Amino acid sequence: MNGFPVMRLELTKKAAFMAKANGKSGLRLLSTLLVGAGALYIHRIFRTEKHQRLAWLRSKSQVITTKHGTVEYSVIGQGQPLLYFHGGMGGYEQGLALAEMLPLDDFQLITFSRPGYRRTDIANGGTLPEQADVACELLDHLGIRTATILGLSAGGMSALQFAQNHPKRCEQLILLMAQGPELAKSQPSPFWLWLMDLMMASDFFVWLLMEGSLNVLTRLLRVQGSGNTMRNVKEFFAGVFPASDWRLGTANDVEQLLNQRTINLTTIAAPTLVLHGTQDVIVPPIVAKDNAAKISNSQLIMVDGGSHMMIATHADTIRQLIRQFVMPHQVNNR
Q1: Do the domain assignments include residue 172?
Q2: What distance in Å separates the CA atoms of residue 28 and residue 184, rounded to the nearest whole number?
Q3: Domain count, the chain
Q4: What is the pTM of this model?
Q5: Distances in Å between the alpha carbon of 100 and those of 95, 134, 303?
Q6: Cα–Cα distance measured from residue 163 to residue 231, given in angstroms and rounded to the nearest whole number
Q7: Least confident of 27-36, 69-78, 197-206, 262-271
Q8: For residue 66, which phi and psi values (nearest 5 degrees)?
Q9: What is the Cα–Cα distance from 169 to 144, expressed in whole angstroms?
Q10: What tens digit of pLDDT does each residue of 272-285 get?
């Protein structure tokens, strides 16, 4: 008889243990379901925003067919033709942002996606000489004989090649935080190479970076400012997501930079303005100094405190410098 209470106690303990174990299993299952549902919800938002971003990018440009394949472009304003060679991790839309940050009302801005970017073919236009030829075909399509050429960041290499190969079509050359042959000799930052590899590998990572860590990215780029400045930065980065829309072009830019043998800066005759920031961590100032030193008819202006995004932080200064450079040459060429 005395054994029954003990047995009852053991059964009670066992039932309590099983109930506790079942409760933990239920919590684990609930947690798994919640995490899964959250992941699906986030992925759905990601997919929706990717579709919307691509639709927006396609709505702001048009496409023509040339002997080098399709070329995507957009034209803004009236006046002196200004042909814009955009930087990496984006496309023609960088020109739209540039037009907002540097409202050069006296210019007709022609911005196009370089080969491998957006909807511009790379099959027959990937080398630097071919990229220069693609730009000429676009000018032909628009009925424009000569233009001021502006190369920003990675677009500087293509702009330099254009000025060298097509001197009669290049009225002036502006290099804005631009790459040049000297960059291939510099030791790139392992961190920035790692970050670029991550961005090129995953649209989802880029989406998270643009949605939640843009402030971190701007601090790494040494961008300082608030209000309009940060809105300009965000607008300029609007085309970074999705990366799959520019991955091929950026990879090609790296290849062209490392293997280029076609640019000879000493042969460029066009009046050239080299604008660069003293705090640029993406394209070291030594590159700008080398470009200016080897281009005979050039002017180098180092913007104190300017970063690789100085078009946002020093917009008024850059706009004035570009106007002061271009307008006298326009008068002299008439």
Answers
A1: yes
A2: 53
A3: 1
A4: 0.86
A5: 9, 26, 20
A6: 33
A7: 27-36
A8: -125, 180
A9: 9
A10: 999 999 999 899 99
Q: Which H/E stretch holds residue 39?
A: helix 3-59
User: Hey, what amino acid is at 326?
Assistant: V
Cα separation of 271 and 194, whole Å?
Answer: 37
Structural tokens at position 28: 């684990």
H or E segment at 81? strand 80-85
Residue 268: strand, helix, or coil: coil
H helices of 168-284, where? 190-201, 203-212, 214-220, 228-236, 247-259
317 in a structural domain: yes
Q: How confident is the model at residue 5 (pLDDT cuts 50, 70, 90)?
A: low
pLDDT digits (tens, 9 = 90+) for 303-328: 999 999 899 889 899 999 999 999 76
pLDDT digits (tens, 9 = 90+) for 177-235: 999 999 988 766 777 777 788 888 889 888 887 776 666 667 666 676 666 777 777 78
- 62 pLDDT band (50/70/90 cuts)? very high
How many angstroms separate the CA atoms of 279 and 221, rounded? 9
The pLDDT assigned to 29 comes to: 66
Q: Which long-range contacts (CB under 8 A, 24 or more apart) does 131-137 make?
A: 131/158, 131/161, 131/162, 132/158, 132/161, 132/162, 132/164, 132/165, 132/166, 133/68, 133/165, 134/66, 134/68, 134/71, 135/83, 135/85, 135/162, 136/162, 136/166, 136/169, 137/66, 137/67, 137/68, 137/71
Segments forming the whole domain that contains residue 144: 57-333
Kindly state whether residue 12 falls inside one of the protein's structural domains. no
The strand order across the sheet containing 107-112 reads: 62-66, 69-76, 107-112, 80-85, 147-152, 170-176, 272-277, 298-303
C-alpha–C-alpha distance, residues 296 and 298, integer Å: 6
**CATH number where 258 lies:** 3.40.50.1820
Query: Does 10 fall in a domain?
Result: no
Is the pLDDT score of 253 beyond 90?
yes
